Amino acid sequence: MQRFPRGQLAIDQGETEVFSEYEEGGPMWTGSGSRERRRTVTFATPFLAPPVVQATVSLWDTDQSTNLRADITAEHVTPEGCELVFRTWGDTRIARIRMRWIAIGAVASEDDWPV
């Protein structure tokens, strides 16, 4: 568990389209086997240390004739940002994915004095 001093807790959040491959016939829609897409996120204000980041899918556009397989995560989390990662495998066909994220961590306080 992380505990934050008074006045240092901050929450940043956002939403981004990770990919849209239906119209151009990209590998997420036409391919098979292991596939992944990454989207870089930059936080509005840097945190003091890498924050806790929760990622979730906010839009699924999938083919209903195949199994739905997905691994959703945030990787390479730094105080400045992270990468949202969507992975699938097998015969799963994904036309588009949009993801939401929330980052929670400590930021500098107005009361902090540089030493």
UniProtKB/TrEMBL annotation:
GO molecular function annotations of the record: carbohydrate binding
Task: Please report the organism this UniProt entry assigns to the protein.
Answer: Citreimonas salinaria
- Domain H-type lectin intervals: 39-104
- Please give the Pfam families that the UniProt record associates with this protein: H_lectin
Q: List the keywords (alphabetical).
A: Lectin
Q: What is this protein called?
A: H-type lectin domain-containing protein
Q: Which GO terms are recorded in the biological process aspect for this UniProt protein?
A: cell adhesion
